[in-house]
Amino acid sequence: MSQGDAELPATPKLRATRLRLHTQHQAVVIMRTDCHVCRSEGLASRSQVLVSSGGREVQATLFQIEGDDLLAIDQIALTETTWKILSLDEDAAVTVTHAPTLESLASVRRRIYGNRLDAHAVGSIVRDVAARRYTDVHLAAFLTASAALPLDEQETIDLTGAMVDVGERLHWDSPIVLDKHCIGGLPGNRTTPIVVAIVAACGLVIPKTSSRAITSPAGTADTMETLAPVDLDIATLRRVVEAEGGCIAWGGAMHLSPADDIFVRIERELDVDTEGQLIASVLSKKIAAGSTHVVIDIPVGATAKVRGEASARHLAERISAVAARFGLSATCLLTDGSQPVGRGIGPALEALDVLAVLRSAPDAPDDLRRRAAALAGAALEIGGKAAKGEGAAAALATLADGRAWRKFQAICAAQGGMRTPPRASHIHPLIAPRAGRIVHINNRKLARLAKLAGAPEAKAAGVYLNVSLGQEIDKAEALLDIHAESAGELAYALEYARRSPDIIEVELSS
Amino acid sequence: MSQGDAELPATPKLRATRLRLHTQHQAVVIMRTDCHVCRSEGLASRSQVLVSSGGREVQATLFQIEGDDLLAIDQIALTETTWKILSLDEDAAVTVTHAPTLESLASVRRRIYGNRLDAHAVGSIVRDVAARRYTDVHLAAFLTASAALPLDEQETIDLTGAMVDVGERLHWDSPIVLDKHCIGGLPGNRTTPIVVAIVAACGLVIPKTSSRAITSPAGTADTMETLAPVDLDIATLRRVVEAEGGCIAWGGAMHLSPADDIFVRIERELDVDTEGQLIASVLSKKIAAGSTHVVIDIPVGATAKVRGEASARHLAERISAVAARFGLSATCLLTDGSQPVGRGIGPALEALDVLAVLRSAPDAPDDLRRRAAALAGAALEIGGKAAKGEGAAAALATLADGRAWRKFQAICAAQGGMRTPPRASHIHPLIAPRAGRIVHINNRKLARLAKLAGAPEAKAAGVYLNVSLGQEIDKAEALLDIHAESAGELAYALEYARRSPDIIEVELSS
pTM here? Predict the structure, then answer.
């Protein structure tokens, strides 16, 4: 089909202005309904547009505004996400056109209808996601489709590889580079800072990058941030690890697997976690971080993320198989997921538990100490610092003699200086309804309680447990304390607790 | 679990200001990061908030802004969607709190994981959707889940009923209330205005409400809007139908099945249409409109929406079964879907075809005349205005003697006055690459071409076909003309045409 000559549109330019409007991952720009670009391009509200300036470009959702209160007719307002991607100066000239058709959305549609995707299709999707070309609707559709028909092993491998390919990748000189991860679902259980301190104190290399919470009241990065800066760039992370052997940094700041950071926000909004996405998320970060060996904690319990031993073993096998395809050796430990580990749930409250264990404080939670020692012990055995079966004991010794605590302080100093975790302004106890024995703790509801209290956004917020399974308690004793940074959040959490008598169940003693 | 006394937060009030920002269905409000409500409530960007004033409330996504250029510390800016729902005055006091947890999202999650939903669960989802409590992420997840595991008959019935229940419902005195619908997928095929004119001219009642385009270059409402106002409220629609027996109105303006209007926007963004959603969408509108009998056109063709006769029969059976559960009788006609019907594709270009048929113009597209007569004929037989097998002939007679044209003019006048469809400012031919015979027309690519040219938002935009299947054509003759309202859109359409030599295939004549 030939077309003869068509008049081409003049390049549609506008002056950029920074709005300092925070829209999170959603890239948004605002233009006048009556501006020449909207009219000549036929743009409407919620059109997807391509905004370009100085060789950079970003795809964004257009909102249109009427009248000249906010914008002159030749101005475009950029929200923080778009402003930073384009690195603009005020009044810079930007070009706005219709966003090009995303060919990869055809693959998303095929996946919705139950067709498996090959590496090429998955790669195209992930590249468009990382370039922020997908809207929330597109992202949610892809994640939902890969939950409805779960990703198979090959798709998980392809997704993992594609997520590594679109980000930065670290390389280390050491033949063994250790890493550690917990599958999650268990409130508290903040072993990572302790494990890194022990492993690094024993002379091994463990450049740990962690995520923020997806659906939990705190991620390791959220907790660690109350103790030291975690937004390290790659050069800083390298300097910390070269000096101290280990670090505990937020992975998102260094663009390891950037597509994951976008997927994670949508998963949080949906409150959906799927095996394939979980594996790709975890392993893409580890591979990108240059790890050779990773120890993975899989807590198993009725209200943990993994509920039975069979599914835990399946997950462990799938993780090991996918990891092996990238030359990464994964050691999975199935652990007790019947109740929280440690007493704090929420960033700062978990940090206090970590400090207590590292300092060998008399009231340090022993379950957290033992869990961290088991995981660190596996790493010490892999790294040749302990004989087979003797790793946990070696780890406990490193805690007991203060080496781990000194190493942790050195790491915090190297990351930018140790901090004191904040304390909540509103603390309120939940009182036992009767005297008796603690027979059940619902991890999911406990996590929800901590989140309603404000965790993880409110660092000091969360729940501090006073009881554990099997313990005897008197009437009018506090089962737990709710910590909140605002009266509103405290009220929400208390309202939820009032409606949920089964968060912690107390049975009359016989 | 008891809780003792908790201090309750003071009601968090702000002054409302109207931003005149258009965000389509996405309800958005903007607040200062440092305002007392954000701080006391622990709100962050993209928090879901509940905004209340004067007994009305709306759930919205919060974007936060820094600095005092746009807002004073005690102000909240509302986008048009939120402003109109709350019916506010400038500086009205509004309350902002965390949005409550949506219990129905648990059902969405269960559906993602492959569990069927019961009527109660579907009802809860649809009520939250209609109340605009779902974010784009939630909406896309629900629609994707019901595409990945298609809705079964019971779920489709439950969804249809739930969608009727959340909207207005019309009642008519007539024992037979006719309706008409086309499943779509065929560009052009704008029979509805013709069918309504014929059926009403014969003395039957046909209060037709139509939708705007989902994924096509024009919906009936888009086309009809170029001929007369279609945004009728229920009182006006009733007056038009009582006077003339029929109308062609946009359904969205009268809140029949309002959840459908929200689903449709997301389906458009995903470019996904599923059987269950399709049936619920069509039938909920018909049931809400008070119809007793509906004639449904199912075009079948390799590049139409329904590609084979078997799936067309399955769809027809499913439609009839679901309709019957609501006391609605559905008559499905399987029609030729191998090529467009009529010559125009796009709102105004289709309107010109409609006018030509109604006026019995010499160059009126005969395929459109015959298709409309077949559908109107089925309605005339149902309504007892023609004997079995003689409906189409009776319909053609109504066109030939001018009764249908006079009725159509009367309906347009009653709806607010007849209009002349706009003409495009940019028209460009696509020239045949060689002399020969037209052997294939790709409906999907033709529709895409019309959309890239600006349809349906640009009313005059689209494609005007000069050829049909089997026709002989000379080299350098125009296969079609592209109509656009802007040079940019014309350029996009031409660029697509250049990349797609198979939109219309010409074979050398033997």
Answer: 0.86
